[in-house]
Description:
Layout lengths: L9 H25 L15 H22 L17 H21 L1 H19 L7 H25 L14
Amino acid sequence: MTHPESQAAPASVWPQTLVGIGVLLTGLALAFGAISISSEAGYGGVGPNFLPWLVSIVLTLCGILIIREARTGGFRELETPSGAARAYWPGFVWVSAGLLLNAALITTIGFILSCALCYLLAVQGLRRASGQASGAPRTWLIDFITGLLIAGPVFWTFTKFLAINLPGITATGWI
Length: 175
């Protein structure tokens, strides 16, 4: 027997059911795609179709469980959503600008600088959305340096250790 306060409102059951259906259909679509992948065993006896099948099975199972949960009263112990009642569009613009500039500039200024710029703009949007002070030059500098400190090791890991080419700004491949 469930307590009335632990049940979701009836209006929220359909969106929850639709999420479950979406997860279920994604799992089934992945399974359909995995059918065409060769099952010939590779390194360690595992074939290239192992991971797609594993992900599709887990997603399908999760979709079924989400649908069951939604149809038997909704998600239980669901916390009240935090944040504003409406979207903060200026923050969305800041984050979008960061992503778009990253994509536009990555081959021009290199991976590290374009990702640091993306980080800077995204954090500015998030700071503004949460009401934090974000206009000070010191804040911008700290955010840009933090972006560099994140992007640098990622770049070097991919280029030096995994031998995956990412756009750099020097011929040496270190920046």
